[in-house]
Amino acid sequence: MSTPLDPLRAETVFHDAKPAYSLQEARVESNRCLYCYDAPCIKACPTEINIPEFIRKIGTGNIEGAARTIFESNVLGMSCARVCPVEVLCVGDCVHNEQDVPPIQIGRLQRFATDAAFDSSWQFFEAGPETGKSVGLIGAGPASLAAAHRLRRFGHKVTIYERAAVVGGLNTTGVAPYKLRADDSLAEVDWVLKIGGIEIVTSVEIPKTHTWAQLEAKHDALFLGFGLGPDSWLDVPGKSLPHVSGAVDFIAQMKAKPLDLSRVTHAAVIGGGNTAVDAVRELLGLGIDSVTMVYRGTEGGMSGYEHEWAHAKEESARVSWQTQPLEYTTDSVRCTRLDANKRPIAGSEFSIPAQLVLLAVGQAKLGDLVRELEGVVVEGGKVVAEADGSTGRVGVWAGGDCRNGGKEVVNAVAEGRDAAISIDAFLVKGGRRG
Ligand SMILES: Cc1cc2nc3c(=O)[nH]c(=O)nc-3n(C[C@H](O)[C@H](O)[C@H](O)COP(=O)(O)OP(=O)(O)OC[C@H]3O[C@@H](n4cnc5c(N)ncnc54)[C@H](O)[C@@H]3O)c2cc1C
Ligand code: SF4
Atom 3, ligand 2: which residue's CA is nearest? Predict the structure, then answer.
């Protein structure tokens, strides 16, 4: 299924931020685990991996068993091991934190076990006996992949419809390459597909190429996993200049093809969330001398993770707090300072040199795509669903960013997996729209 990737794509200059453990390092780290009863790390993981169990298995040399435990809960355990913000999830809740002892490096141990599974081609799952039921999934990102894999284990026929030519969603096109490169994401998709019977149709756009009526006629249930839309823009003069781009769009290009940034010595990233911080670190890693984050709030008010911002500062990121762009020119961003109420301060205008400007001020929500699906409720652009992913229309489920508004890969995996379980219960009962 892998689409060939350009071997010269810009992301290849990046190296792993958290390199792999050796067997010896993994054994030592796993032996520090207290194997807590009622372990808080399990509750902090959206996919509720049995963390003490897989760590104990690593400690006793049963690496295959450790990988099985991880994948049983989270079939995208390889990418999650690399991309999860563990500092605010499992590792953040490790009881060692309360005892002034370094927390167990759960993500790195998970990576050790899942990498071993990939390297050794261990296969843990097979498709269930064919049920004759069919499910259509929109989008080939983490949410749909997790749902599709679970649906195949139940024996249902699965077809994924993907707008892009490349599969894997933002794991392939968006995640910072010092965590996960596009080739690793595609390898993971191939690994998921090894269960057999998952058809992926790429370069199709729902509902343009296939209407909802056609999809509902073809499938017994649908899963909406279409994620978020394009970068949002600020209405600032100069926004159409060629060196002004959306951050997610720029990152996708960096992960897909070579980039010539030889004329860029200064860059500015507008925003203060995780995408802004990633973009700053990526531009620095691509060799740009000076990268300034321009954020309208204060350091304490930024939505980007503290640990990621700390890394950016170590890498010499610059920042202008309480600042708003007024105009983009060919080689600068003209800005104004803001007061505590985010109002411009008269006479405070100044310029930040920038031959490249990236906007990281959010992404559009795609809820409008389902407006013809009567009964599916959209609020604030997000598809509204119950805890099991079911929407207001019988036979339609949703999960991942299109439902939660943009969280993490592991949330998308959990929502996709749980929706599949709910879809199976519906189909087993003979479910079909009325
Ligand atoms: C720049 C960036 C960096 C990130 N970094 C991290 C990170 O380090 N760690 C982390 O855990 N999370 C990270 N995230 C968030 C994470 O990538 C998402 O939460 C996750 O990918 C959501 O999965 P999903 O399947 O819901 O959506 P997506 O991954 O967005 O996949 C949705 C898929 O649907 C397709 N699609 C959209 N519209 C249609 C249509 N009309 N028809 C057919 N297909 C369609 C899209 O092309 C896409 O492939 C990051 C996000 C961004 C933007
Ligand atoms: S999937 Fe993510 S949050 Fe869950 S245990 Fe693994 S690294 Fe931690």
Answer: 45
pTM above 0.85, yes or no: yes
> Three-state DSSP class for 110?
helix
The tokens for 135 are: 């499910």
Return the best residue to mutate from 110, 160, 175 for the ligand 1 pocket (most ligand atoms within 8 A of CB). Answer: 175
Mean of the pLDDT values across residues 388-411?
A: 98
Report the C-alpha gap between 152 and 131 in whole angstroms: 10
Angstrom distance (rounded) from CA 54 to CA 64: 10
pLDDT: which is higher, 407 or 432: 407
Distance CA 73, CA 122 (A): 16
Reported as type and span, the H/E element at residue 382 is strand 382-383
Q: How far is the CA of 172 from the centre of ligand 1 (A)?
A: 9
Give me Rg for the CA atoms of the chain.
22
Span from the CA of 183 to the centroid of ligand 2 (angstroms): 21
Residue 107 CB–ligand 2 contact under 6 Å = yes
Question: Measured in angstroms, how far is the CA atom of residue 427 from the centroid of ligand 2?
Answer: 30
> How far is the C-alpha of 298 from the C-alpha of 213, rounded, in Å?
48
Interval 69-124: pLDDT, tens: 999 999 999 999 999 999 999 999 999 999 999 999 999 999 999 999 999 999 99
**Separation of CA 75 from chain center:** 14
Closest to 432 measured CA to CA, from 136, 127, 231, 219? 219
| Contact by Cβ (8 Å): 302, 280 | no
Could you tell me the pLDDT band of residue 18, with boundaries at 50, 70 and 90?
Answer: confident
Ligand number nearest to the C-alpha of 413: 1
Taking the C-alpha atoms of residue 165 and residue 150, their distance in angstroms, rounded to an integer, is: 24
pLDDT at 433: 54
In short, whether 142's Cβ falls inside 6 Å of ligand 2 is: no
